[in-house]
Write a structure and sequence with these properties.
By secondary structure, the protein is mostly beta strands. Helices cover about 0% and strands about 55% of the residues. The chain is globular.
Length: about 70
């Protein structure tokens, strides 16, 4: 079972997608974590939107994306 991980205690690996909890947006799914942008470090998660990528800078927690359901045979 996936559980929320405090971003202060542990960040996801660079360029990994994760579900994110943000102060501004609530739960955001399938966000890409980018550790450095233009040489600046920070908690930068990106989600795709119709207007293009949106940066979430106020993430407090993240969790690994669960595996998809297995097909029944």
């Amino acid at each position: 079972m996936n559980e929320w991980i405090d971003i202060v205690k542990l960040t996801p690996p660079n360029n990994q997608n994760a579900d994110v909890w943000s102060k501004s947006y609530g739960r955001c799914t399938d966000c890409r974590y980018v550790r450095n942008i233009g040489g600046k470090r920070g908690n930068n998660f990106f989600i795709s939107t119709r207007a293009g990528p949106t940066c979430i800078r106020d993430a407090t927690h993240w969790m690994r994306i669960p595996e998809p359901p297995k097909k029944e045979e």
